[in-house]
């Protein structure tokens, strides 16, 4: 096993125009995710002040914080993928030769793409249903579920896009399989 | 297929997939989806997004990013370095003073956070680079924080103890007290091992560091005041009836950000973005794994694997200590794959009655269970703390983190053995404070 | 054939026993049908059970129907202040036209009710006791149920929304000063360890929550007539027992709190009327305004003597 975050700080190597566009989108997602997290922090503080010092009701804050953070996590998925920030254990690829390693990498990206696409698809179906049937959260505040759920298909959809760009980058040879140095 | 075979199949598949080089979160989703598809039918795949979302839909879990922001803000300023400089100057005569104080900091932080990865992230962010800088071996620097982080769910407040208390109808207050002394004991064992490991790795020079004059020791103190103010503020928010355990995380995070900007003059947008970018990346990485582990746990529960194994253990007719040994091995293996809360929800209702029939104390058992599950946090294939360290200290390889953590696993096994011989370590304090439990 | 039943309650809870009873009876009927129980949220989280149930991904559940109030707003009436006075009244409501209408809504969502049952609850507080609306003024309260939250807010309480896992810590550190939930939850959350006063459901009670055993309708229709009969017979038996236990639960909770040295307060008939007056101005009004056909549903629910 080796350290697996070589690109974490410097960012990945760019390839062609397609990859650059996808990376710009992912970067935008990163900024959005950070913004949502900060908003969650501020709302939590607001809740504490309003409840403990002003003695007022805190009806919308808990849910808002949860939804902001879920939004941050989902929307941030492609950004972290672009930074190679999703940790992995590359025990098996380390034992492989360069050729087999490329095939293995492509295989793994395809499996990832299939699963992420499936989740994005079913998220979309759920979103559609929540919107059509006007589902709300069962609280006094009762925000609409579809609004919150948008984060799921959006986040997984953009993660799918980033994974496709990664696959493209591997096939065109812009990046090394598993970002490992060759033997 | 009988659950034992099925469980074995899941274990082998999980290890193979997670070591394949796929990212851990996606890997867990792949295994869960595959087994659900084969053994539960295609319709169960539809539910994966809902379960993923449902696992994130909890305020308690969402305090983790806030603690990560807190750690990143301290680490990015001179505050972190100042604190360790002060520790260095004051603890120069204590062998391995820095690693001792890092584990101490984990224990202290554990008393503010109910989660292990959060404890790990907050302390490790500044602690690991400092230890490396001062000549501690990488194994000790990474291992001590990974292990120290696990104290988060043993020392109160603890999310897993609350879940255990509700699932088994035992007193949460008593459970909290039961975890305290074993938590401190475990911290001491970690410290002892860290000192020994540092010395053995040829770090003897660390113990004979230069001595500091009283003047040098005193002049550093004003520089740690801002940090102490933050700590006092957080403790006040939590124990003074201002905020709940999870909410406290936000107080700490905002206080640390404000401290970084106002006191340490972190004006430049670049620097602030650096803190935000790092904590966003780490939070998303860890919460993605946690939500995916929740989907994995749903698959395990749906296929009734964990429960069937627990029931199988329940049916065994063996000596009570053999029973305890089997239960421990079972929990250990379950912890390798599943997050602590999931293991408790699936097994506690089945296991606890049997253990009580065998005359084991439920509060004592909660501590044993928690330590077992803590081990799972620092072992592959799903070791949340390992991944946190890997993310906050990318300069240390996962292999080194893993090797460094293994001795601490042994420390935890030792703690379990000690607790088996001296159960009063866990039950003594609650009995003293709350009176003998009605058992 | 095997049916899967999920619920959120601990294995010592009366609601788990109800589920177990159905499972045992059905197994004893020998009609090639078994029920596998997933207790304590070990399969689905409490709030995440309804949608899988409507889609047939989960066969059965025992849960507070008001948790699905976001999907069907009328379900909020099953946890609403001032609609039910006592367990005997709850039993009459179960057999009323209101429940028949509600069953139609459930059926449209592909859900069928097997066991009807209400559980009662009360208040627990740190500091002074809560029996009248003016007692919650200025207090931070966590209530279960939209209708109750609206009523308490109208009475001047500040409503805190926090996950139930935080209740214990929050009450201990006095962030929460009062809590409103069911008798059995008071006991299973061990709140008697930390509260000063308990206002249980007694002769007069305010808080009733409908917690039925429900099954996916398509799944039920797919069973053989013998299996259906076994299931409905078992449910009828469980329902009778559930009703008895619901009352016993209130008494048992009082005993537990008393033993722990907690002060016990009681609500008078006049107190209940005072709460109802607050509810009329808040939750009733809001329900009638917000829910389509709301006034008709309210009339239907309040028409039961
Ligand atoms: Na803790
Ligand atoms: Na593990």
TrEMBL record, chain A:
GO cellular component assignments: plasma membrane
Chain segments annotated as transmembrane: 31-53, 65-82, 102-124, 145-165
Annotated keywords: Cell inner membrane, Cell membrane, Membrane, Transmembrane, Transmembrane helix, Transport
PANTHER family: 2,3-DIKETO-L-GULONATE TRAP TRANSPORTER SMALL PERMEASE PROTEIN YIAM, TRAP TRANSPORTER SMALL PERMEASE PROTEIN
Gene Ontology MF term list: transmembrane transporter activity
Pfam families assigned to the protein according to its UniProt record, in alphabetical order: DctQ (PF04290)
Main location: membrane
Keyword DNA repair in annotation: no
Domain Tripartite ATP-independent periplasmic transporters DctQ component span(s) in chain numbering: 41-172
Subcellular location: Cell inner membrane
A biological process from GO: C4-dicarboxylate transport
Description of how the protein assembles with itself and partners: The complex comprises the extracytoplasmic solute receptor protein and the two transmembrane proteins.
Family the entry assigns: Belongs to the TRAP transporter small permease family.
Function noted in UniProt: Part of the tripartite ATP-independent periplasmic (TRAP) transport system.
Name assigned to this protein: TRAP transporter small permease protein
Topology term for the membrane: Multi-pass membrane protein
Automatic annotation (TrEMBL), chain B:
Domain of life: Bacteria
Keyword Membrane: yes
Subcellular location: Cell inner membrane
Keyword entries, A-Z: Cell inner membrane, Cell membrane, Membrane, Transmembrane, Transmembrane helix, Transport
InterPro entries given in the database record: DctM, TRAP_DctM
GO CC annotation terms, alphabetical: plasma membrane
Topology of this chain in the membrane: Multi-pass membrane protein
Membrane-spanning ranges: 6-39, 59-79, 99-124, 145-166, 172-199, 220-242, 248-267, 287-309, 321-351, 363-389, 401-425
Chief localization: membrane
Keyword hit for Transmembrane: yes
GO molecular function: transmembrane transporter activity
TRAP C4-dicarboxylate transport system permease DctM subunit domain location: 13-425
Summary of the function given for this chain in its UniProt record: Part of the tripartite ATP-independent periplasmic (TRAP) transport system.
Subunit comment: The complex comprises the extracytoplasmic solute receptor protein and the two transmembrane proteins.
Family note: Belongs to the TRAP transporter large permease family.
PANTHER family: C4-DICARBOXYLATE TRAP TRANSPORTER LARGE PERMEASE PROTEIN DCTM, SIALIC ACID TRAP TRANSPORTER PERMEASE PROTEIN SIAT-RELATED
Entry protein name: TRAP transporter large permease protein
């Amino acid at each position: 096993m080796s350290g697996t975050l070589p690109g974490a700080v410097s960012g990945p190597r760019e390839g062609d125009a397609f990859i650059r566009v996808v990376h710009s989108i992912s970067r935008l997602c990163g900024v959005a995710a950070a913004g949502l997290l900060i908003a969650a922090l501020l709302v939590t503080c607001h809740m504490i002040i309003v409840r403990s010092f002003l003695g007022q009701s805190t009806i919308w804050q808990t849910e808002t914080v949860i939804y902001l953070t879920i939004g941050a996590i989902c929307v941030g998925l492609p950004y972290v993928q672009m930074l190679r920030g999703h940790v992995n254990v590359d025990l098996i690829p380390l034992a492989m030769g360069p050729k087999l390693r490329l095939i293995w990498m492509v295989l793994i990206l395809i499996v990832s793409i299939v699963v992420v696409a499936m989740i994005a698809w079913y998220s979309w179906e759920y979103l559609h249903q929540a919107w059509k049937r006007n589902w709300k959260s069962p609280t006094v505040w009762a925000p609409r579920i579809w609004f919150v759920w948008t984060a799921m298909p959006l986040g997984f959809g953009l993660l799918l896009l980033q994974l496709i760009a990664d696959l493209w980058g591997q096939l065109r040879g812009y990046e090394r399989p598993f970002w490992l140095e060759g033997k | 297929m009988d659950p034992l075979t099925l469980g074995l199949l899941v274990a082998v598949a999980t290890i193979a997939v997670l070591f394949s080089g796929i990212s851990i979160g996606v890997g867990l989703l792949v295994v869960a989806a595959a087994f659900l598809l084969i053994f539960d039918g295609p319709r169960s795949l539809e539910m994966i997004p809902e379960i993923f979302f449902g696992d994130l839909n909890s305020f308690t879990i969402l305090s983790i990013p806030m603690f990560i922001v807190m750690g990143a803000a301290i680490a990015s300023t001179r505050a972190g370095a100042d604190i360790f400089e002060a520790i260095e100057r004051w603890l120069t005569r204590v062998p391995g003073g820095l690693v001792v104080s890092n584990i101490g900091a984990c224990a202290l932080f554990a008393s503010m956070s109910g989660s292990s990865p959060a404890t790990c992230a907050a302390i490790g962010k500044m602690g690991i680079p400092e230890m490396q800088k001062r000549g501690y071996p990488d194994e000790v620097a990474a291992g001590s924080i990974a292990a120290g982080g696990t104290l988060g769910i043993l020392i109160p407040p603890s999310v897993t103890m609350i879940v255990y208390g509700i699932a088994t109808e035992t007193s949460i207050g008593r459970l909290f007290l039961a975890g305290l002394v074993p938590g401190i004991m475990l911290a001491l064992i970690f410290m002892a091992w860290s000192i020994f490991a540092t010395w053995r790795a040829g770090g003897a020079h660390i113990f004979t560091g230069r001595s500091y004059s009283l003047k040098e020791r005193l002049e550093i103190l004003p520089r740690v005041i801002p940090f102490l103010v933050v700590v006092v503020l957080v403790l006040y928010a939590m124990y003074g009836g201002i905020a709940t355990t999870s909410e406290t995380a936000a107080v700490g995070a905002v206080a640390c950000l404000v401290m970084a900007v106002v006191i340490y003059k972190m004006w430049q947008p670049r620097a602030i973005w650096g803190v935000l970018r790092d904590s966003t990346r780490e939070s998303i990485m860890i919460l993605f794994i946690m939500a995916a582990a929740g989907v994995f746990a749903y698959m395990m529960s749906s296929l009734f694997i964990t429960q069937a194994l627990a029931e199988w253990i329940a049916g065994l007719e063996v000596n009570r200590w053999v029973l305890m040994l089997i239960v421990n091995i079972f929990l250990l293996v379950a912890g390798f794959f599943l997050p602590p809360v999931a293991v408790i929800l699936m097994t506690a209702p089945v296991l606890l009655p049997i253990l009580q029939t065998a005359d084991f104390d439920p509060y004592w058992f909660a501590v044993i269970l928690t330590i077992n599950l803590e081990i799972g946090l620092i072992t592959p294939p799903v070791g949340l703390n390992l991944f946190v360290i890997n993310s906050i200290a990318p300069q240390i390889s996962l292999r080194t983190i893993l090797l460094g953590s293994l001795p601490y696993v042994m420390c935890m096994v030792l703690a379990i053995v000690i607790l088996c011989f001296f159960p009063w370590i866990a039950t003594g304090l609650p009995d003293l404070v709350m009176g003998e439990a009605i058992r | 054939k095997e049916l899967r039943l999920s619920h959120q309650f601990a294995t010592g809870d009366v609601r788990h026993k109800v589920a177990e009873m159905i499972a045992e009876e059905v197994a004893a009927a020998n009609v090639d049908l078994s029920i596998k129980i997933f207790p304590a949220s070990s399969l689905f989280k409490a709030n995440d059970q309804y949608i899988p149930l409507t889609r047939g991904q989960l066969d059965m559940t025992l849960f507070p129907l008001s948790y699905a109030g976001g999907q069907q707003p009328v379900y909020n009436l099953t946890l609403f202040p001032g609609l039910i006075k006592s367990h005997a009244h709850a039993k009459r409501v179960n057999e009323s036209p209101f429940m028949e209408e509600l069953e139609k809504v459930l059926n449209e969502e592909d859900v069928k009710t097997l066991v009807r049952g209400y559980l009662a609850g009360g208040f627990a507080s740190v500091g002074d006791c809560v029996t009248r609306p003016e007692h919650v003024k200025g207090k931070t309260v966590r209530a279960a149920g939209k209708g109750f939250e609206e009523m308490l807010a109208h009475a001047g309480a500040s409503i805190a929304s926090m996950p139930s896992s935080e209740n214990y810590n929050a009450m201990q550190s006095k962030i929460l000063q009062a809590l409103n939930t069911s008798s059995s939850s008071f006991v299973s959350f061990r709140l008697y360890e930390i509260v000063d006063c308990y206002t249980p459901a007694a002769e007069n009670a305010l808080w009733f929550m409908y917690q039925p055993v429900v099954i996916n309708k398509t799944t039920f229709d797919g069973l053989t007539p013998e299996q259906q009969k076994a299931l409905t017979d078992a449910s009828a038996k469980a329902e009778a027992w559930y009703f008895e236990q619901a009352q016993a639960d209130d008494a048992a909770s009082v005993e537990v709190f008393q033993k722990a040295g907690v002060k016990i307060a009681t609500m008078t008939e006049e107190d209940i009327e005072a709460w109802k007056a607050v509810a009329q101005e808040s939750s009733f009004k809001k329900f009638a305004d917000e829910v389509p056909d709301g006034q008709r549903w309210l009339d239907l629910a309040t028409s039961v003597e």
